[in-house]
Amino acid sequence: MTMNGSVSPVGFLGLGVMGQPMALNLARTGTPLVVWNRTAARCAPLRDLGADVAETPAEVFARARTVIVMLVDEAAIDAVLRRGTAEFPAFVAGRTLVVTSSITPEYSRALAAEVGAHGGTYVEAPVSGSRIPAEQGALVGMLAGDEAVVEALRPILQPVCRAVVYCGPVGHALLMKFAVNLFLNVMVAGLAEAAHFAGQQGLDLRQFQAVLDAGPMASGVSRLKVAKLVERDFSVQAAVSDALNSARMISETARASGTAAPLIDLTRALLAETVALGAPREDMIAVVRALEARTTAGGEGAPLQQLAEDRSG
């Protein structure tokens, strides 16, 4: 698809584990795109599908009226948007900024106020789902901001999200994601602990998988993660370091609001131990490594990997 002056493309900043498949789904369904990523090689698949690749973020803002941001954290957003410089007002004036990154509600509200002060429109748009749902266009979008603007964005987000839920004022979409991710993080840690427990008792992990997959607790997440445990496949769908960052933000938000949330604190500790063991960019199910290390340190048995190898041999 060749873009021309008669069609304003959608801008897309950030083509990482989540951003690239999201942008690819937009390109495949005919959305005109102008994309930028710090590592230029990540742009190649988008170029192959007809998207224009910008040399700088400034070029994206110069050409697009709606810009989707999927950058790794708040520091990256500030740097790419040039907050605090004369470039920032020119970037956002007359644009709709759709921020899908995992950030704090406080940061999001402050950014929204600055965008509005310079004549732009801000939409908070975190998504629920990891790399595979992103590839399948099956994310769940949680949107906050002006409801009329959110409604106008639904057709743009349709190739990316199987559902879009309006959550209210800026801040509420991120708080909704925190609530959902609290469940996700604790569930994955619980699954890892259950599999580790099964392995330590000498049970066949494939039989554990069969029972869990057939039962009432099975879900898309459990089926994917238990398969990764059985195969010892820690290739990333959602990274440990990202899960730890999510757990940190949830824990701090709970503490600031006086909300009891002991399970996310325990999960946060296990994730931090997993990062310290050298697995920050493995899949979050690698939290089992922390359980294995605790077990080994306590002299209570061999790690899950050794047990699996012993059974397969």
TrEMBL record:
The 6-phosphogluconate dehydrogenase NADP-binding domain covers 10-168
Q: Which PANTHER family match?
A: CYTOKINE-LIKE NUCLEAR FACTOR N-PAC, OXIDOREDUCTASE GLYR1-RELATED
Can the keyword Oxidoreductase be found in this entry's annotation?
A: yes
Q: What are the alphabetically sorted keywords of the record?
A: NAD, Oxidoreductase
Q: Which InterPro entries match?
A: 3-OH-isobutyrate_DH-rel_CS, 6-PGluconate_DH-like_C_sf, 6PGD_dom2, 6PGDH_NADP-bd, HIBADH-like_NADP-bd, HIBADH-related, HIBADH-related_NP60_sf, NAD(P)-bd_dom_sf
Query: What GO MF annotations does this protein's record show?
Result: NAD binding; NADP binding; oxidoreductase activity
Species this protein is from: Deinococcus maricopensis (strain DSM 21211 / LMG 22137 / NRRL B-23946 / LB-34)
Q: Name one GO biological process term.
A: organic acid catabolic process
Q: Which residues form the 3-hydroxyisobutyrate dehydrogenase-like NAD-binding domain?
A: 171-291
| Catalytic site positions | K177
Protein name as it appears in the record: 6-phosphogluconate dehydrogenase NAD-binding protein
